[in-house]
Every structure is written in structure tokens, then in C-alpha cells.
Amino acid sequence: MEPTPEQSPHHAYPDHWEADVVLRDGGTARIRPITTDDAERLVSFYEQVSDESKYYRFFAPYPRLSARDVHRFTHHDYVDRVGLAVTIGGEFIATVRYDRIDGQGRPASAPADEAEVAFLVQDAHQGRGVASALLEHIAAVARERGIRRFAAEVLPANNKMIKVFRDAGFTQQRSFEDGSVHLTLDLEPTAESLAVQRAREQRAEARSVQRLLAPGSVAVIGVGRAPGGVGRSVLRNLLGSGFTGRAYAVNTSFDAGTGRVEGVPAHRSVSEIGEQVDLAVVAVPADRVPAVVADCGESGVQGLVVLSAGYAERGAEGRERQRELVRQARSYGMRIIGPNAFGIINTAPEVRLNASLAPESPKAGRIGLFTQSGAIGIAVLAGLHRRSAGLSAFISAGNRADVSGNDFLQYWYEDPGTDVALLYLESLGNPRKFTRLARRTAAVKPVVVVKGARHSGTNPPGHAVPVSRIPDATVSALMRQAGVIRVDTVTEMVDVGVLLAGQPLPDGPRVAILGNSESLGLLTYDACLAEGLRPRPPRDLTTVASPQDFRNALAEALADRTCDAVIVTAIPWVGEDGEAETGDGEVLAAALREAAATGPAKPVAVVHVEMGGLAQALAAATSTAAPPAHRPSGPGPQAPSAAPGTPAPAASDGRAGAPGDPAPSTTRAPGHPAASPGRAPAAEGAPSSGRAPVSEAAPSPAPDAGRIPAYPAAERAVRALAEAVKYAQWRRQAATPGKVPEFLDDTIDEHGTAALIGRLLGPDPDPRGRPLTHDEACELLAGYGIAVRPALPAPDPEAAVAAAGQLGYPVALKTTAPHLRHRADLGGVRLDLAGENALRRAYDELTDLLGTPAELRPVVQAMAPRGVDTVVRASIDAAAGAVLSFGLAGAPSELLGDTAHRLVPATDRDAAELIRSIKAAPVLFGWRGSAPADTAALEELLLRVSRLVDDHPEVVSAALEPVVVATHGLTVLGASVRLAPPPARSDLGPRRLPSY
């Protein structure tokens, strides 16, 4: 909506304040500025507010708004007077307004930095978190306009509003004056306010997913009158899964007398149903979808699964159709899976939902699966079915215009029915948010990701999201930092998923190998070494070993305290007639399960070659009773807990609390990873889930408990186990996160550096930014305690000799031309020049060989102590955020891609891991008898660079090259810095859904 001409162009309608938000109950609403066109909406809204709420707003009976009131509340300058409204279906459900005031409470303009704020929420929508969302947005608007504090007068009886202010997490003061509570809020975000915001975001988005996965009623729209077609297939799949709710068939072409289709009520529209419909599955042509969405929205449908194609995957016209679909659905408070989706499945026994094109629902299990591709979804479902692995939920989101993998991470984080999250992603709409959510979720349960479209540099058709420019290797490193298990193929994803869902996490990398084939044992041993594990010599049971021999050997290996995991290798027995006896697979499986169930909790995997029935028998559910009391629990996935005293709500998937349902337990069934007593180790800054502590009642094992995964190749089993080992190590470290050392504060001038950056950028900076000169870069880095060794220009031999006299011999002569910078292999560097003659000779050689002094731009620099040449870089990617990188200097490291990466801000642990994670790290630690480098000084340098780019997002790139790390100390020989206006941060503002 545009403002009237009377408003100043300088105060034009701020469309960037518009936002879609998810409310506490999972529904959506739109927040936008109020305009002069909203007079009728405002009056209608006010008429629906109760007298009590009006009294709380105006401190007196106020039955209706006068014409003057309406004018005042709809005319704003968007600077000193701002009003926001929350709308659903185009109508107001809440408003908030601030007026800038001076120290005496009178209307004022800038530079006054305080404003009076007031809210009004329609009674029917109170308790949905509307006011909390409004406070986040109006506070962000106020900060943008230079307002630093809010003042509010609240009646003591208005407990709901007082609670909104109190729980926001802002620094605040309260006093009681003239019969009202006077509140003052400092609008500067705090760690507490950010944690509150993210906790509310998690609860709201998890609830929105729960409404999609556990509907009480489903309407399939587009069901054909004759058998066949997408709509009819989905309806049959829904009914075939045993859906426990109500189902309806909808098609505008049904005759008036059509009573039932496939045994369920048939209607020509959702509005004709006359009962609440929670979820609508849309399978009509794209041009008919808008009418269907309007029908659903007017009928109170909560969510849509849009199977229809013809959207962003079809080009520009389709992209605009997709944007309009999202706008229309959100205007009614609905969320969308799709369009171009394959569907959703929830195997919970009290739901049994199959609203997809998959003809059969997967078995119930502990794995949650999200894919952005229907074809990949089908492949993964088939792979899990072959392994007899069960799913808790399956989502194939298609173009994922609205609901994304981030939403399901929010849901799975506290879902007691999911122990492992598998995601196939082709694009990351919000990488910053993804890494934050993945880190928090990975602290309580494994997150396994396959990233498609890794090397194309573009998003797949239909995915209208920002494109990240960082290399795939960097993306992989950042996922690892967040605890994500990144694998390359869907086969590996299934391999890792079935191991993590059925086995406990290993305590370390020590692996015992046993079996009846020496060759297969050696292959497994070699694979373990290749994956960085520490295998023990394989134990050959010989080809005559019986199932009882396997059982005894496995029990012995599990009891061995020097062993963290066991891999069993098996080949068929050969009978007396020379034929393979393949029928003993079930007997062997029973022996292995028995040993695993009674021994200590360690992961077990089986590698088999043509063992008939073995894989299926091992995957069979085996545990029907409580686990043995002596079996200790290990570091398996844990469920998040709430603060003491938090009431236990119904589980987000509708399972917990249902009559007869087993309660989650802190004790683990054989082979099943479950929670330990107390709070699960969480990533730094992870908010409480709001869920009550889990019960300690005797458990019933989960569907995947006790399943021993079997693999047809040693490499696949070992790779899956290696991922589990690395993830378990990350989990242990995440329980005690790193920190930024306080000693940095004493040598950092944050405010002085900010002032310098302001001067360097100027009042009207170029959006493209500017590189700093050498002297400017040195001055900037010095503010953070980073000293760059001086380099003096040498435009001629005489200047070079003078510079060397100033610096002191020995010196280095280097070219700084862009095409020769840091390329010692091209001969642009001369080192250890001990005197004037050597310097002049080197100068002549350089200019004769490479070009004129004007082309080479030579400089003279004092020699640094000998050491290891390294490179430290930091850069900001608009999508992923600031990234800190480290590697050794030189062409080999660049050619091999031997560079490590971490997200900023980096902790002391991140810095230590960054140095040690490159393949060439041994060079820094005394390789081949050399003196170890001063890695402590290097870690400190990394932390300083991280702090610089974190404190000052205007530093969009910084490179220190080379950094010579000696036995004691280090020397920065070169530095380049680029400044630019900071890119917008979508992860620090108020909650909002993506808008593409």
C-alpha cells in the first residue's frame, strides 16, 4: 500500500517493514505499516475488541474511535510516529504504535531517542503470541529511526501486557506511578532478548509443522470422478495408510448427487464440507490453485500440500505464480508444502498419515526424512525399505516455496519420535539460520545431510533463494562445524542413518573386527585406516566358525574396554558338497543380536557377502521388553529438556500423552540411543525447548531399537561408522563449548577502529566497497593488535638501498604487482639480502627478468625469523555470513584445496581445530624432526581476525599473507583489506518468514 501525496518522499512507505510471521499456534500473519487507506479496517477492528481490552488501552471507557482518532492512528510520518498492524485475511487483528517523546513526555523529533508505545490485540487472537511478535518488529523499526528506549504505561490489572514486556528479554525498569505501571525498555538487543526471540521462533515453527503432520482432518482437492489421476491416487494412499482422522474428496466437477468417493464424503468445495478441515492436499492444475487457496482460506484450513506443478520450475511466469501462491496462502494464516511437492507422511500410530504419491507408507521408525526432490525421496524410501528401516515422518517439499528444511529442524529438535534427521537439500534458503538450527539440533540428535547441486553455482529450477558464492568445500566445513554429518550420496545417507537409528554412539575410534573370512577382515581393516579409525588386527574365526562362535567372539569384543565399536564380517558357510549354505543367516543374526543385547552399549555393524536372510533378520525388531539393568547408557542422541517447573505439553507430533503410549525414558533399550538424565548437551546459545523433562518410567523400545545394520561392502560399513565416531566426538565437545579469551579485550580498540572505518568509507560509501591501501590496512589491523611488518616502496635502486638502511639488513626485495603478489615461484621475491651489493644485484635481476619498476612495484622488507608460511583469511558471504579460513601458503595447498574454514565468531576451540584440520598440519608440529611452530600465537592471530570481522561487518574481506610462524612468535608480512557497507543480516532482525 502506498502513502498519500501529502506524505514527504523522504518518509515514503517503508515496504521493507512488511513481514510474514509464524505465531505461537503455528498459524501465520502479516505485519505491515498502517497507511491512510486503513481507516475502515481500523474501525472494524476496534469494533471487535472487547470493552475490557479498550479500557486497558485507553485507561477509560472508550467504546468507539472518533474521526479524529481514526485520522491520528492512520496518518504517520514513519519516523516520529509509526503504526504497525497485524493482518489475517486482509483484516486487522492487532495494532501497535509509537510516538517519539522528549524528556518531559511531550511529542518530539530527532535527536530525541525515546518513544511511547501502546498495543491493542483483538480478544479472539490474544494468547497467540501476536503482541510478542509486534514488539520485536516495532522495536526494530524504532532502532532504525534512532529511538533507543520505549516507555509504556500499563494498568496493573493488564497482566498479559506486562508479561509481554517482562518476557521480551530487553533491559528494563519498572515503577508504579499514579495508579499505573511505568515501564522503560532499552531497545538494544541483548543475549537474553535474542535467546527469547529464537526460542519463540522454534516453538512457533515447530508447531506450524506439527499442524501439517498431525491433522485431524484432510481434504484431497482434485479427486477425479473416475479411478486414476493424482488426486485419486493420493486419496487412496491416505485411506490405505489407515489415517485416523476424517477424510474428504473435493472436486468442483462432482455432481450434486455425488455422495461418496472411495468411501469418503465427496464435495464440490471445502466450504461445502461444513466441518473443520485441518489440511488440504491440492492436486489441480496451477491456474485453478488460486481459487482453491481462497476456498481453503475462507474455510479455516490450517495448511496446504500443493502437488500441482507449473510454478518456479517453469521460468519467470511460474516464479511470479509461486510468489503469489505464497502471498495468498499466508494472508489466510496457512503454510504450504510445495508446490510441485511429492507429499508428506507421518507414521505415528495415532495419525497414520500418507498424504503423498507413495503407494505404501514406510514402516514406523525413528528416522525423519526431508527431501527437496520427489525422485530422490522415492529412492531414499526404497533404500530404507530394503534395509527394513522405519521412518517417523517423510516430507518431499518440491519447490519449498514456504516450509523448508529449517522448519523441520525446528520440529525434529524436540520431537520425541525422531532420533535421526536425514535431509536431502539442493539449496539453502537461509544458510545462517540453517547452521544455527543444525548446531542446536545436532547437540541432541544426529543430522545427516546430502547437498545436491554442489558444483553448479546456481539453484535448481523452482528454488528462488539467494545463491551463495562460497565453494562447496567451505560449505562442507561449516556444516561439520555445526555438527552436521555431511555425506556425498543418498546411499551414504541411508547407510549412516540406519546405523545411528539403531546403535549407540561410539566412545572413540577403536574398532574390533571379527569374522569368518580373513580377506574380508583385511579389507575392513584397510578401510578403517583410510577413514581415520584405529582398528585392532582382525580376528579370524575361520570358515568353520558356527553362529555360537560368532556370538562368543562378539560378546568378548564388546566387553573389551579397549574397543569402542565392532564390525562383524561374514561369508556363507560351505557345506560338505561344496555348495554355499545360505539358509543360516537367520541363525547367525539371532546369535549376533543376543550378544549385542547383553553386552555393553557399543555400536555393532555387519559386513556380509551373499548371506541369505542375514540383513533382513538383523533389521527385524527384536526388543519387546525393558532393557537389562546392567547395560550402561552411552552418548546417544538425547531429548531436550525444559526449565524446572515447565508443564509438559502434548508432544508436537501428537504422540506423547496419548492413552496407552509408552513414555520416553532416560534408560536405553538394547542398542537404542536415548536420553541421559538431565539436560542434553546443547550448542552455545541454544534456547530451552519448552518441553518438560522426560519421564523415567520403564520404557518400551523404539521401533528401530536393537537393529544391527548390515552392509554389502566393508567400505560402506566403515564409512558409516567413521561418521558416527566424528559426530560422537563433536557431541562431547559441544557439551562444553569454546569461548573467546578475555585477554583479547585488553589489546583491541573496537571504538577507535569503528571510527577509522567510518572515515575510510566516508559519508556516502560506494556499495561495491573499496580496497584499502597498505598503510590504511596496517592502521586498521593495528587496532586489533595485529602488527604487519613494514614494507617500504623501492621505485628505484637508490630508494631500495635507502629503505634497507632504514630497516636494517638482511632484507627481502618483493614485487607487489597483482599478477606477481605471493608468487615466489615466478621469481618475484629475493630473500636474505645481506648487504647493499646483494640488494642492487637482486634489483637488477628482478627488473631485467620481470619488467620495469613501475610494473613490478617493488618493496623492501626486513627479514622475518624463519618459520612456516601460512595464510589467514576472512570474508563475508551475503548468504552464509563471515567465514574464517586457514591454510599453508603456496601453490600445493591451493591446488589441493587444503584449507580449513570456520564460521565467525570463532572460539578458542575453533581456532585450535582450524589449525589442526588441514592435511598439512604436521608441518606445524615438528614434521620430520623440524622445530614445532608457535601454534599458540597462530591461534591468537586467528581469534583477533575473527573478532575484527565480527565486530565490524564493514570489513568484507581480509587476507594476511604470508604469516610466518616461527618457533617463538609469528610475523605478518603482507595484508590486504576491503571495506564495504555491511550486507543485511537476516538472522539478527525480528522473526520473519523468507520472502523471495
**Main β sheet profile:** 8 strands, mixed
Which strand order does the major sheet show?
1-2-3-4-5-6-8-7
Number of strands: 41
Distance between the termini: 19 Å
Question: Count of helices?
Answer: 27
Radius of gyration: 32 Å
Q: Which secondary-structure class do the elements indicate? A: alpha/beta
Strand content: 15-25%
Label the overall shape: flat
Helix content: 25-40%
Low-confidence stretches: 1-10, 621-701
Estimate the mean pLDDT confidence. Answer: 85
Please describe the structure with a list of short key phrases separated by commas or semicolons.
alpha/beta; disordered N terminus; 996 residues; 8-stranded mixed sheet; 7-stranded mixed sheet
Task: Please give a quick description of this structure.
The protein is of the alpha/beta class.
Structural notes for this entry:
- With about 1000 residues, the protein is an alpha/beta fold.
- Helices cover about 30% and strands about 20% of the residues.
- The chain is built from 27 helices and 41 strands.
- Strands 1-2-3-4-5-6-8-7 form an eight-stranded mixed β-sheet, sandwiched between helices. Strands 11-12-10-9-13-14-15 form a seven-stranded mixed β-sheet, with helices on both faces.
- The longest helix is centred in the first third of the chain and has 23 residues, at about 190-215.
- It is flat.
